[in-house]
From TrEMBL:
GO terms for biological process: endocytic recycling; protein transport; retrograde transport, endosome to Golgi. Residues 1-27 are annotated as: Disordered. GO terms for cellular component: cytosol; EARP complex. Residues 54-345 form the Vacuolar protein sorting-associated protein 54 N-terminal domain. Residues 8-18 have a biased composition (Polar residues). The gene is vps50. GO terms for molecular function: SNARE binding. It comes from Takifugu rubripes. It comes from the Eukaryota. Residues 754-988 form the Syndetin C-terminal domain. This is VPS50 EARP/GARPII complex subunit.
């Protein structure tokens, strides 16, 4: 800084402070002379070069003002001085000094105009301040003159004005006193008109006026009288407030709330309102139930008026239960709707009050109003839960007051529907899940459902024992969704929404989005709607005659118009009636329909028409009813699904018991039967080696386990005499059902009908159809099932439903075992000579006899198919069983041979090939079952000793007798006695573990 000052001094310039000290306020700033400017401009003008020179200056020169540059330069001199170097260094410093001087001069010239301008502004400010001082002096002088001239005169005017004001106030007071004397009459008129706000406002004004003029003796008693009148108004106001609990009126409630606001008792009014709502709920339900009890009791002397509500509910009769429940819910709805509208009124009123901003004058009053509104809002929100809890407790007492186990199904569904709607009201009312109602209705539902399910199982047993296993004619496109019991599934509604609510909401998309309180805000009642059963009238699942084409129907009628229907059972001549519901569809099964169905050709029948019986249809309907109940009340979903599984279990067990076990006597004493009564085995006819169920794989281990489980858990076994009185056994039997017995009208021993094949097909395929319907319901049941119980449902489907089709094997195997005379074939094979010495070109007679048996079987199968459609899987199973049994019979016949030559073995192969060739023309089943079983046994005759030993170990499917015979027949040809003993010992080792 010191260097800059010295430079400025050298250039003839002064600092701003020095300039200010030298200059007067009006003196102009000195402008540099032309010589000075010229000297500065003569310096190098290249900015870049000038900047480089400045940049080359050492940083130490810019450090501070105390820096001694002379000392610095002297210290930099080398020990030995060189004149030329010193001159060069001096010139460099001069150039640096010149560049800095020029830069400083440029900066001073650049800022000079601003300096001059600021100096002019300071001068002008000084002038203005002097003028302001003069103005203030003049003003003070003039104020003094005004004070002396006007104050004395004004005091006289003010005194006169004060006297006038006092006289005007006195006149106003006298008029007010006159009005107060006439107020009493007007208050009485306003109370009669129910103008509570006006009466209170008038009374408060009178009180205020009376307190103002209490120093007047003429109105000394008026204040106490007005207080009594105000208390009377409050009593009437409380009565008016209680009226809003049942029938809310906007105008009425507005007047009541305005009146309480005028009294300053908004919070007290809200407390009173909740007390009135609680009292209204109690009085309402008591009066409704009391009315029904007294109506049903007639002229009984019982004093129901003095009973508690809980005890009163126990006197409701079954006939009046649903009407009383409906009226109870209607009355409670009115109370809750009034509360809802009360809250709505307060919300709208609060919005109206808060929309315009309060001015400063009403700020204090607005603050109090905000506090009141906040209290009212919290009180109303808290009251929602409290009121709904009171409603739940009242309805719970009513629900638990009656034993509903003997209700009809439709009546109980109505009860569930009403309670479901009430729970929906509660959810919309306060967001409650209605745990109290859920628990009470769950308890009643479980109690009812156990009783109902027990009756349905007994009913199902009766149906099964009277079932003749005839086809129930249904349309080819029959689906369970067409039954009215399953209509609810198409509605895709939530379990919490009642059927009637769903019906109401299905009228339009706009209505579906509205809550019950929005739908019935002004009129109507959600509990006035009744469940319609129009679906029953429009349900059309039965085929009128087995044909869907009118031309086919007419053709059949013309062909069989003259036939007699005397052989048609009487029950088939009647209209089809659902035994479960007693409902008759619009279309009935006429005599011509039955006749045409019995006489019609198999090719005219609908190839894809479902095979089911009347009992199957009833079970499906029953499942639909169970699912309805489960859909309405989710908490009992597991109990319902468990009972649904028992329906299927019992039906499956009945079909197996009727048709899967054969107890017919063995026709030949020389051929003992093999089997027994154990579930999962079949008692058979014929040689044990031929018809052993395990060797044919008729009953899988999964099916056997399922049948045993059903028998242990569901089927009631007759207890012994000493155990009959045990309490535990009695309790256990309550959950079980006796095993059904086949109807005597069903004959399974007639060979002309292929041992009841038609009935077997209807029974088995109806079970398969039922299983298919259960499969289609799995996803819906899975959504209903609680997460913890879902493994039960999965196990039911994987281990029970999926095994239905496995019953085909044991059931149709019994037919196959008797349809062909395998005993005759064995006898014919025993008469054939097999130790021949020349190759034969003609097969044996037993092959033709066996083929004729198969042709006869095929014809009888076609005869049965004219009455009952035989599906391809059934036909394949029958043919497979018959062919397997025939092939095993062939092996058994070959195993009975005592002597056989190589030519005899060739004859066996010729016979078998002839049998196969003719058989392939009768059936489309490919490959032929057990073909290798016969061929391998015939070829085993040619095996050597070592190969024969390996054959015995590998082929366990042959019996010990068949293997032993194979060894004995080969003796002498290519097996010696020693080898024979060895092979027989090997056979005995294989047989030993089975003993």
């Amino acid at each position: 800084m010191q260097k800059i000052k010295s430079l400025m001094t050298r250039q003839g310039l002064k600092s701003p402070q020095e300039s200010m000290a030298d200059l007067s306020p009006v003196e102009n700033f000195r402008i540099p002379s032309k010589e000075e400017l010229r000297e500065l401009r003569e310096q190098p003008i290249d900015p870049q070069a000038e900047q480089e020179i400045i940049d080359s200056i050492e940083e130490v020169y810019f450090s501070n003002d105390a820096f001694d540059m002379v000392q610095h330069e002297l210290e930099k001199l080398p020990p030995e001085l060189n004149l030329q170097e010193l001159e060069e260094y001096r010139d460099k410093l001069k150039r640096q000094q010149a560049a800095v001087s020029k830069k400083v001069a440029d900066l001073i010239l650049e800022k000079q105009p601003a300096y001059v301008k600021e100096l002019e502004r300071v001068t002008a400010l000084q002038t203005n301040l002097q003028l302001a001082a003069v103005i203030c002096t003049n003003a003070r002088r003039q104020l003094g003159v005004a004070k002396e001239g006007f104050t004395g005169a004004s005091l006289g005017l003010l005194a006169n004005q004060r006297r006038r004001h006092l006289l005007t106030g006195l006149l106003k007071s006298l008029r007010t006193i006159k009005t107060l004397q006439r107020t009493d009459v007007r208050l009485s008129e306003m109370l009669e008109e129910e103008d509570y706000p006006g009466a209170i406002q008038l009374c408060l004004e009178c009180q205020k006026a009376a307190s103002t003029f209490k120093h007047y003796s003429c109105i000394s008693e008026l204040n106490s009288k007005l207080q009594d009148t105000l208390e009377q108004i409050e009593e009437q106001l409380d009565v008016a407030l209680s009226k809003t609990c049942k029938h809310f009126d906007v105008a009425h409630y507005t007047k009541v709330q305005l009146a309480y606001t005028l009294l300053g008792k908004t919070q007290t009014a809200m407390d009173q309102l909740h007390m009135h709502f609680t009292q209204a709920i109690h009085n309402t339900v008591f009066q409704v139930v009391l009315g029904y009890v007294e109506l049903c009791a007639g002229n009984a002397d019982t004093k129901f008026q003095k009973m508690q509500y809980k005890d009163l509910c126990t006197h409701i009769t079954l006939d009046s239960y649903i009407p009383c429940l409906t009226d109870l819910c209607k009355a409670l709805w009115e109370v809750m709707l009034s509360y809802h509208r009360t809250m709505q009124w307060h919300e709208e009123h609060d919005n109206m009050e808060t929309s315009p901003g309060p001015d400063d004058a009403a700020a204090a009053k607005s603050g109090d109003s905000v506090v009141d509104r906040s209290y009212v809002k919290k009180k109303l929100e808290h009251g929602l839960t409290r009121i709904w809890q009171d409603v739940q407790l009242k309805v719970k007492a009513y629900i638990l007051g009656t034993d509903m186990s003997n209700f009809k199904y439709d009546d109980f569904i109505v009860v569930l529907d009403v309670i479901s709607r009430l729970m929906q009201v509660g959810e919309e009312f306060c967001g409650s899940k209605s745990e109290v109602l859920q628990e009470s209705i769950k308890w009643q539902s479980v109690n009812y459902f156990k009783h109902y399910h027990r009756a349905r199982l007994e009913e199902l047993r009766m149906f099964l024992e009277n079932e003749t296993w005839e086809l129930c004619p249904v349309k080819s496109n029959f689906n369970i969704a067409q039954l009215h019991e399953f209509k609810f599934m198409g509605q895709c509604r939530s379990p919490s929404v009642s059927p009637s609510r769903q019906a109401a909401s299905s009228t339009g998309l706009a209505q579906e989005e509205l809550s019950l309180f929005q739908l019935y805000l002004l009129e109507g009642n959600p509990f006035e709607m009744h469940i319609e059963h129009k679906e029953e009238e429009t349900e059309d699942v039965l085929a009128s005659n087995g044909y869907e084409s009118d031309e086919l129907e007419k053709c059949v009628y013309q062909d069989y118009d003259n036939d007699s229907d005397s052989d048609v059972p009487e029950e088939l001549k009647q209209d089809y009636v659902d035994e479960q519901t007693g409902d008759a569809p619009l279309k009935s099964v006429s005599r011509e329909t039955i006749r045409s169905k019995k006489k019609s050709d198999y090719n005219l029948n609908k190839a894809n028409a479902p095979i089911l019986t009347n009992t199957t249809l009833n079970v499906i309907r029953l499942v639909g009813k169970y699912m309805q109940m489960m859909n309405i009340l989710k908490p009992i979903a597991f109990d319902v699904i468990h009972c649904v599984s028992q329906l299927f279990d019992y039906y499956l067990y009945a079909v197996y018991t009727f048709f899967g076990r054969n107890d017919m006597p063995v026709p030949s004493p020389s051929l003992p039967a093999h089997g027994g009564r154990e579930v999962g085995t079949a008692r058979v006819v014929g040689p044990a080696c031929l018809y052993e169920s395990s060797s044919l794989g008729l009953i899988s281990s999964r099916l056997r386990t399922t049948l045993n489980r059903i028998q242990e858990s569901l089927i009631e076994v007759e207890a012994a005499g000493e155990n009959a009185g045990v309490h535990g056994a009695v309790e256990e039997r309550k959950e079980k059902v006796p095993s059904p017995h086949l109807s005597q009208l069903v004959v399974l021993t007639n060979s002309g009908t292929l041992y009841g094949l038609a009935q077997r097909v209807v029974a088995t395929e109806s079970l398969v159809f039922l299983a298919e319907q259960f499969e289609s319901l799995q996803s819906h049941l899975d959504t209903m099932m609680p997460a913890a119980k879902k493994p039960f449902l999965q196990q039911f489907y994987s281990q029970t439903v999926s095994t239905a089709s496995e019953l085909r094997k044991p059931i149709y195997w019994i037919v196959a075992a008797r349809a062909i005379d395998y005993e005759q074939m064995l006898l014919l094979m025993a008469g054939v000579k097999w130790d021949i010495r020349e190759i034969m070109s003609q097969h044996n007679v037993y092959v033709d006899v066996l083929l004729k048996e198969f042709e006869q079987f095929n014809k009888r199968l076609a005869d049965v198919s004219r009455h009952v459609r035989i599906p391809l899987p059934v036909s394949n199973v029958l043919w497979e069983h018959c062919i397997r049994l025939a092939n095993r019979t062939l092996v058994e016949g070959y195993a009975n041979v005592k002597k056989c030559s190589n030519e005899g073995r060739a004859l066996m192969q010729l016979d078998f090939q002839q049998f196969l060739m003719k058989l392939e023309k009768l059936t489309d089943l490919r490959p032929i079952p057990d073909k290798e079983f016969v061929e391998t046994y015939i070829k085993a005759y040619y095996l050597t000793e070592n190969d024969m030993e390996q054959f015995i170990k590998n082929h366990r499917e042959y019996s010990m007798k068949q293997l032993a015979n194979l060894v004995n027949v080969c003796l002498g040809s290519h097996i010696n006695k020693k080898a024979r003993q060895k092979l027989l010992a090997a056979i005995d080792d294989i047989d030993r573990p089975k003993r």
